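Lecture 7 notes: from sequence to structure.

We start with a single chain of 466 residues. Read the sequence below before looking at the structure.
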Amino acid sequence: MKFMDQEFLLQSETARRLFHDAAEHEPIIDFHNHLNPQEILEDRCFDNIADVWLGGDHYKWRAMRTNGVSENLITGNGDPYDKFLAWADTVQNCIGNPLYHWTHLELQRYFGIEEPLSLRTADKIWNACNEKLQTREFSVRNLLRMQHVSVLCTTDDPADDLHFHKALAREELGFSVLPSFRPEKALGIEKEGFTEYLEKLGSVSDTDISSVSGVLEALRKRLVYFTETGCRVTDHSLESAFYIPAEASEVEAIFQKARRKEPVSETDAGKYRGFLLRELGREYARLGLVMQLHIGALRNNSRRFFEKLGPDTGFDGEADFAYAPQLSALLSAMDETEELPRTILYCLNSKDLDMLAVMAGCFQSNEQGIRGKIQLGSAWWFLDHKRGMEQQLQSLSDVGLISTFIGMLTDSRSFLSFPRHEYFRRILCNKIGSWIENGEYPDDAAYLDKLVRGICSKNAAAYFGF
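Now the structure, written as tokens:
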């Protein structure tokens, strides 16, 4: 079999038919990423392939560190060509790692380069990529158009003025760039900078935030502002206790303690965070917004490098705390009053996949006809590889309906990351193809075409209301 040819990962005739006839050309709806809207507005062109590949990509940084590369050639001020050579050496050592597949899908789909990247081929590939990147045809907008991106949702703080999103909405792009509401700093009562952030939130919303009710009012105002700017989705990173039921008076006392900059215990933080999550979830339901819960990151494991480089630089990991009772209680608290929004559940530890798939099934009932109201989210971050995607698809199929799945997202900071949707689609078609070839489901071509197209884009379009 030829290296990463057009039948890459497609191990049966049915899989190949499903991919090429149904999945391959569906538009991309990327409903969670960390792209910079300013760069889209300015239609940035990158100076070289090292900038677009290695600038801010902590997936690659982790691999380079493991390969013994000096930090100066990772996050430091090393020469871009030297950084590229370090990555070329690293990627050749990435056998079995999704970074190898992603890198070569990007070379193929954007630059038409079929040759594998290594130290031997690095100079040739460096020159070929840079020649194209320095033309307007390879600006960030055109990179998005090349992959048929239809909608992308960035990740934004409630205090953001959304200036760049508003400006982009006035342009004829051929795709939509929408904000997502991520109130992480307002929920992080135990984190450094909490009180300072609340002052900023209060100022931008013209709200007195000296009480919990004031914080909620400020967030509600910003939610309205976000929805008026096209927001359809919210996002929350849950890394420790996130729902411990408490009375409003107790939560208020915890909040006042934090305002005095006194230490807040994990239990107290869970009470405050849970109170806000429940109330925000009800507001999301009222406004028709989707609630994303990303559960299980263990942040900033290397204190030394956190102090040197800051967050999101490749030193986060997987937590292993047990949270099923908290999640159940949170969802039930909103469901009791029929104010549970459409919700997507993501885990970072594969041990939680089956639990989340089963949990989703407990809260699907609705009279609005929403298919898959509670979703088991796509394989996320450290699960974003072939085995992780297969596990997620299997868990969802075992106890739920894969036919209602809203599909893939990149969760990426890179404008070259969108072939990851193709990677997922190939794995999806291979999975479905195996069931057909094994005689586990009839080869109903018309239905299977509809099923695959739904998972690739159409289910997400309906779910989010794009």
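The chain has one domain: 43-379. Keep this in mind for problem set 3.
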